[in-house]
Amino acid sequence: MRRPPIRKLDLAGSPEAMGNAHGRAHAAEIRRYARDRVGLVAGGLWSGGPLERGAVLELAEACLPAHEEFSPRLHAEMMAMASAAGIIPAEAVVVGGFTDFVDTVRAATGGPHPATVTEDDCTAFLVPDERAAGAGMLGQTWDMHDIATDHVILACLRPDDGPDVLVFTTVGCVGQIGMNSAGVCVAINNLNGNDGRFGVTWPTVVRELLTQPTAADALGVLLRADLAGAHNYLILDAAGQGFNVEAMPSARPVQALETEPLVHTNHVTHPAALPYEGERALELMANSRRRLEVAANLLTGGDGPVDPERLMEVTREPTAICQWPAEPYRSETSGAVIMRPRTGDFWACWGQPAENDYDHFSLAPVSAHRP
User: What pLDDT digit, counting tens, does each position of 287-309 carry?
Assistant: First the structure.
């Protein structure tokens, strides 16, 4: 489907001011999206068994203390957004952190990990300075159940305290993929975990990482987080330091970026994380492995530097990486992002990259923020 340029949301000021502005700007849309996502959990196809709506929200409410403890500032922003949009705090946990939250639900209820959990088609890549003409890049496709695509936005954040941030996200969610003006970028892949808990969900983790001045500082925050569920995090900074972390609540193996591109999809690759990976349908595991192979071949094959246009072409690859919705899973590529922290360049696409254009945005060059 051909889409217009990505929608922008400009937010500035205190956490409460940014949350209020977010909630007011998209109130009806946030309410609709929250209703749909709570319904997906209650239906059981994503969470291991059917639940009453009230039971879903009770479990989500139990995650709120972990969010407030991890980042009081982001908790205040999320609460202000919820109030302005007309949803309750528990709904804000679900609408933003759905894929971590279903890990929590399965662990709390003892439900099985259903094969229909398919929100896992993201393909992400780290490109080191050595392969990118001295300016490393981080990018990914962002793939979800197709109800999510209409809700994609780009938020431009100018908080009173901390760096400016460009964040690719959805309405009602504090952040999913982003770059800050200190030169730190964060991307993600969903992982299926069997060790969920009442912890902090991944959008709040991403935003907190984006308050940090370096990749090493962001990594430290991630390693200390009381995670609700499993996600793979990719971190890169303007100095070229990068990490890939298969972050389960019970394990956090770290892979440092070296001299060749690093690709990750939606299955665990490190032995330390394998015991905590939830069971997945064979066809979905094959899909994740195929995307990993195709993306790695596209990025490591051939000579010469990897530039942004080449990364965009990787996201457009039509046989494995760029996804269109099909029964029974209805997963599609809802958008894609390419970030170059050393120059402050940020490219974002709304919808399938094979059918849509990238829009270019920028933050002040990193050299303006560092001596």
Answer: 999 999 999 999 987 677 899 99
